[in-house]
Amino acid sequence: MKMQQDKVLLLDNNFLYYNRLMKRKISILGSTGSIGRQALEVIERLWDKFEIIALTAGSNVELLNEQIQKFKPKYAYADDKSKIIGAEYKTLDEICSDKNNDIILVAVSGRIGLKPTITAIKNGIDIALANKETLVMAGDIVMPLANEHNVQIIPVDSEHCAIHQCIKNINQVEKLIITASGGPFLHKSIDEMKNATVEQALAHPRWNMGKKITVDSATLMNKGLEVIEAHHLFGMNYDKIDVVVHPQSVVHSAIEYKDGSVIAQLGLPSMHIPIQYAITYPERYEGIKSKSFSFSQIARLDFEEPDWDKFKALKIAYNCGKIGGSAPVCMNAANEEGVFAFLKGEIKLFDIIDIVEKMLEKHEIIQNLSLDEIFEIDEEIRQKTRDILVKK
Ligand code: MG
Are 113 and 134 in contact (CB under 8 A)? Predict the structure, then answer.
C-alpha cells in the first residue's frame, strides 16, 4: 500500500514537472480589445510559460500587426485579411478548431464570440471566458456541451473569477454573492441619472473597460448579465444568487456555504489578476501584480443593497433569467442596440432600459432554442429595436 502511494506521488510530481516545462498554447480572440491587451501584458511577464497560436482583431489591424511582430503567433484574423502582416490568416472558427490550442481566451465582445467558443468546446479546448454573450444567449447549450467534452470554462470576469476561486464543492454552497461597484450614478438622484451625458456614463469610478460594458455598468445591466452568467456557470438557481453594492471593488464576490461560512475573494481592482488566473489555472504565478494587498491601506469596505427602482435593469435581468429561453436573448439584443444609440447621443440613458422593457413586452418567449434560433431571434430583436429607435 505504501509503495503504491509513493508511485502515485512520483507520477504526480513527474506530471507537475512536465507540466511546468511545457508552454501553454493559447489563442486570444479579441487581442486588441481591453481584455485582450491586458492578457498580452500578463503573457509578456510570463513569456516562458506561454506560446501564442493565434491573435485576432476586428478593425484595429494596426495594433494587431504590432502584436504579431512582438508575440509571433502562427495565425491571425482581422476583418480585412489583406492587411495582416507576419501571420497566416485563419477564420475564428478555424483557429478554434486547431487542437494545438490548450486554451482559448474569448475576449471579443458581442455575439461574434459565441460560435467560435462552441467550436473550441467541441474540439476539447479549454476556454478562458470574457465574452458575456456566450452564456447570456446560449448558456443552456454551452454548459452541457462543455460537460460533454470535458472542457473547463474558466471565467475572466472579476466576479465569476472570484466565485471560481472560492468554490471547492458546489454542492455545499448555499448562495453566491456577487458584488457590484454601483457605477458612476450610485449616489446620484434618478433625475441626475436620467439626464446623464455619455461622458458621465463612461466615467466609471473603479474599472477601466470598453464603452459598451461601461454603460452597462452605469445602468447595472452589466450586473444583471453577470447574474445570468453565474446561474449557468455554477448551476445555481436565481433565488440563490444575491447582488450587493460594494463601491470599493475590493471584494470581487463571495459565496456562502450551507454551514454559514462565507468565503470571499479580495484583491485590488485590476483585471490583470483575474485574466492571469483564468489563463494559468490551476497554477498561480507572481506575474504582473503591482503591489501587495494591505487591509490597513484600504481601511474600510462598504456594502449596501442595490437601489432596485433606480437600477431597473437588474430586476429585468433577474426576471429574464428566471423565465429563460429567448427572454435573455431578447433583453441582451435590445440592450446592446440601446447602448449603441445612447453612445451615439440619440437617446438618454434611461431610454435604454425603457426600450428593453418595450421589446420584452412584445416578445413571445420560446424555450429550448437551437443555436440558429438564438441567432435568428437576436437579429430580429436588434432590427425591431433599431426601428423603434429611428422613430424616436
Ligand atoms: Mg464584472
Answer: yes
CA-closest candidate to residue 343, choices 225, 223, 200: 200
Going from the Cα of 195 to the center of ligand 1, the distance in angstroms, rounded, reads 25
CATH number, residue 149: 3.40.50.720
Q: 61 C-alpha vs ligand 1 centroid, how far in Å?
A: 27
Residue 304 belongs to some domain of the structure: yes
Q: What are the pLDDT digits (tens) for 323-341? A: 999 999 999 999 999 999 9
Q: What are the respective helix, strand and coil percentages of the chain, to the nearest 5? A: 55, 15, 35
Count of C-beta atoms within a 10 Å radius of residue 75 = 21
- Last residue of one domain, picked from the residues 96, 126, 155: 155
> Which residue matches cell numbers 460560435?
115
The answer to whether the pTM exceeds 0.85 is yes
Q: Which structural domain, as residue segments, surrounds residue 22?
A: 10-155
Cell of 207: 474599472
**Which one-letter amino acid corresponds to residue 346?**
E
Do residues 333 and 386 share a domain? yes
Q: Which three cell numbers stand for residue 163?
A: 466565485
Cell of 42: 500578463
Query: Is residue 1 a part of any domain in this protein?
Result: no
Ligand 1 geometric centre to CA of 265 (Å): 14
Residue with cell 512582438: 70
Same domain? 165 vs 17: no
CA of 298 to the centre of ligand 1 (A): 20
